[in-house]
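#help-structures

NK: newbie question. if I give both the sequence and a SMILES, will the prediction place the ligand too? trying with calcium ion
OV: yes, paste both and it writes out the complex. here, I ran yours:
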Amino acid sequence: MLVGTCAGVQRIWATLEDVRPWCLVLLCAGVAAAMAGPLPKPIPVIFDTDMGNDVDDALALAMLHAFESRGEVRLLAVTVTKDNPWAAVYVDLVNHFYGRGHIPVGLVRNGKTPEDSPMIRVPAERRRPDGPFLYPRKIRDGRQAPEATGLLRQVLAAQPEGSVVMIQVGFSTNLARLLESAPDAWSSFGGRELVARKVRLLSVMAGEFETGMAEFNVKTDVPSAQKVFAEWPTPVVVSGFEVGKRILYPARSIEEDFRYTQHHPIVDAYRHYGNMPYDRPTWDLTSVLWAVRPERGYFRLSEPGWVRVDDQGRTSFEPASEGRHRHLLVDELQRARILEAFLYLASQPPQGRAR
Ligand SMILES: [Ca+2]
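OV: that's the protein plus ligand as structure tokens.
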């Protein structure tokens, strides 16, 4: 069926020289839709983040809450690969801020980058003049959060077959451990089988596909990245470093678009990550936008192939018709449209909450 379709497309292609650019857009949209079939609404999403290492993770989480408010996403869980106790606390207080404190938050054990980070610690430590925390949360200490791999198994086991979209915007520690995980009380399947049954798509921010440099998310945990790219059983769409670095989130938005409330945990994180005013690349936001709206033409997709990770953490893309991987491509017009979406989504107020 697919072979026949491709042959037909090739024949038509040869006769459509004047309209090829538009055909390419439509073809890419078709490929996006065909990769996973019609998307359910809301899309069940698991967000895996190294919250605290860069502020784009915080903006990406804010976007996911906006998508949930718009009926496009149901955030099943957030799992954290930064092994710092404030990381899970900060994620939990952001979820509470958006009125979704019920979302489970899992934290890696014996993971990478345990160092302190003011962008998560300072908002978490802020208190009102009369004593309580400025931003309510249920997780007081990251050590109270469940271990991430077990939480991933628990959440996946409860979902329908082929339904879950996973978004990984940190290192691959949690997802590699998920693949290796053994049957347990939540599921009689091992990790790879559980993923193959429950997950429809993995959207990843990792790697770099222009120069092949060792990108942070890959080089921080090379063996886990190698495992995920070699063994993950579903389609994988990767946003390389080169995509988000050319779309800068403007400091002006942080200063002006969040004024609907006096205190905002995303603004606090941004102000404590760098010296204001600064514009920051939107790496992790691109993987969220692709995962939720793959059919909307924000991005183009590469041909299919395989992402390879060498022992130094350098990435390359090897085209192959049977490959399960693709990476994102963007042009100038698309970048402008993507940034507009980021600004509206990241700064969208919590749903139905007068503050
Ligand atoms: Ca990140």
